[in-house]
Amino acid sequence: MDSTSSPSSSSSSPFDLVSSALGHYLPRGGAAASAGPADSQGEPTAPDPGNAGLTAGHQEQILGAVNLDRDLRITRCNLDAPVFAGLNAVTGSPFVDLLPPGDVPTVTRRLQQVLDTGEAHVARVQRLRRGDGSELVVSMSILPAAAPQEGLTVSVIAMARRLHLYAAETAVGTSLDIGDTAQSLAESLLAWGDVAAIDLDFAVWTGEAVTEQAQERIRLRRAALVPDRAWPEGYVTLGDDLPGDASRLLSLAVRRDDVPQAIVIPDREALERVLGDPRLVRALVPGERPASVACIPLVLAGLDGAPPVVLGVAEVWRRADRPFHDSELFDLQELVARTAHHVDLARQHQREHTQVLALQRRLLPRAGGDTIEVASVYQPTTPDSAGVGGDWVNSFPLPGGSTALVVGDVVGHGLGAAAVMGQLSMEARALLSAGLAPDEVLGHLDETVTMLDEAESGLAAGYSALGSTCCIAVYDPVRHQVVLSSAGHLPPVLVLPDGGANTLEVRPHPSLGAEFALREPFDVHTFAAPPGSLIALYTDGLVEDPAVSIDEGIGRLADTVRMVHPWDDLQQAARRVVAELAAQSHPRDDVTLLLARMVGCRKGDTATWRLPARDDAAARARTLVSALLRQWGTRDDTRDGVLLLISELVTNAVRFATGPITVRLIRAGRGLLCEVGDTGNGRPRLGRGGVLDDSGRGLHVVHKLTTRWGVRWTDTGKVVWAEVAQ
User: Fold this and answer.
1) How would DSSP label each residue in 462-516?
2) What pTM, to 2 d.p., does this model score?
């Protein structure tokens, strides 16, 4: 290998700084030759006893440097330490010649990135190829050359066994994602072989609880496989389940005498003899060349004297001419033992992720009705939140043909926030379905948040939801308007059919759970929303950007939503809006968006009559409704049922009303909505009723004729509504 004979005139060069540091430890020239060859793990073997001139400090030197030009060719190098023996760093040769073929694209991209940006890339764990085919694991840093020089300086630190174990354990513990954790472990194990694979118990992969008893029916899934290359047909690759026979075989092998322990199969003949079936050989052996393998169980120590639990198996493959030594097996077992608890932490994180994500999906809107179209997007962005936070959106039909649109943001992330989110969402839905107005619902949610904060038990213990926000909008497709109330939430954006986008003017209000002295009645705002209008409800993660004000972020949202074409698929449009805004602001919080396109009811699909509360009101209502149903072309059997229904509802209203009666019919899709309003305050109840009891018989008729019915209260009385399928 080439070595510089004198430092460059530019003393500020990173290369010269490293070389100067090396000068304190290495004699100029001859150091590499005087030391013994390095073993496959990058640690030098015992030096020649006759080499008395090399001190212990010289033998332990693990730092080197290589200078590259802008074409990524070597211009100078200082790799004289014995540990770097065998690296063919020849001046003028491409630096990538020192890399394993599978690593060339990634490292080249990193080198070019430092050239283009001038920003250093430090402490990358990397393998370098020696001339004999063995590999050396180093910590590689890429630094821009100091002006006026051009190019790069690559410093390398040979990772001795202890240093590598420490670095590997640190790398494996940096993620709570089960796949990333397995991948990091496989990459660390690759220092001992040519191929590394991690096969996890399927229960670990999905986050389920793993028990000792479950090992008899173990099912393994390949969670990580390195390096990234083209694999032979039939070989088990990332994400595939191992054949059942292979899973059982590995499970039994690593639990000899019912104790988890590593096993080594030294050559291809032994592999074929152990596996037996050629199909298993194709599934487990990564290639046709002779190979040996070390299988190390990922073991989780049992609690309170319980037996250990095997989470999976780590496999390290290498050529048969490089047998595993006892010291290497000890290192492999130590590394896997150190990192097994990281795998279990990732499993627990996966379990929480699965639970709260199921809750999140349960709360997402399903689909709009005939009078409104809805679409929603939820993107968690906080890595430690188990993949979900406290944001939620919901939409559902209400009595009278209206649709509720709800968006909320509960403080925090994780299971506590998700539990409160689910409770508030379900409570809001129940109250709105019972006929309460948006401001009344927010009043109840306000009390709920305060109550949860004071609770000392249950899911809310140790977690405060104070400061959570919520916005409720109710769309009336007959009047073509939106009634809205907000508790500290950002204002919705409304795009009218003519393309004008406006942020709805909503008077600021404290968030949920504010101190009693700060509480005020929630305001009710009414906005016109003609057919073709588009409303966007969202959480702050979509519009927050440290570089701009929140008003400018909302303006970006309005401009982006304005570009949604009336004929665009709404779900695709919602994803596009989120993607475009994320590209500008790089969200740091969960992102939630609900888009609703107002369709409304056509003028000819609704009819309203106002009748005096007299004994002939039922007959008059039947006449008016019958004429309308004939005009709509309703089937005879449906028309007869609706006339009987209207007759019963009007008769009941006349009995208790003190003023005029209102009858309204709405045709929506394949159903009819019948409403009868009066000024009475009595609540119709469906009782069991005896044989001679006439009370409530009319409601039994209503119950039989409808798909559902109910009562909602108004400022002047009540409305009994019923839905009939056509």
Assistant:
1) T---TT-EEEEEEEETTTTEEEEEEESPPPPEEE-TTS-EEE--------TT--G
2) 0.56
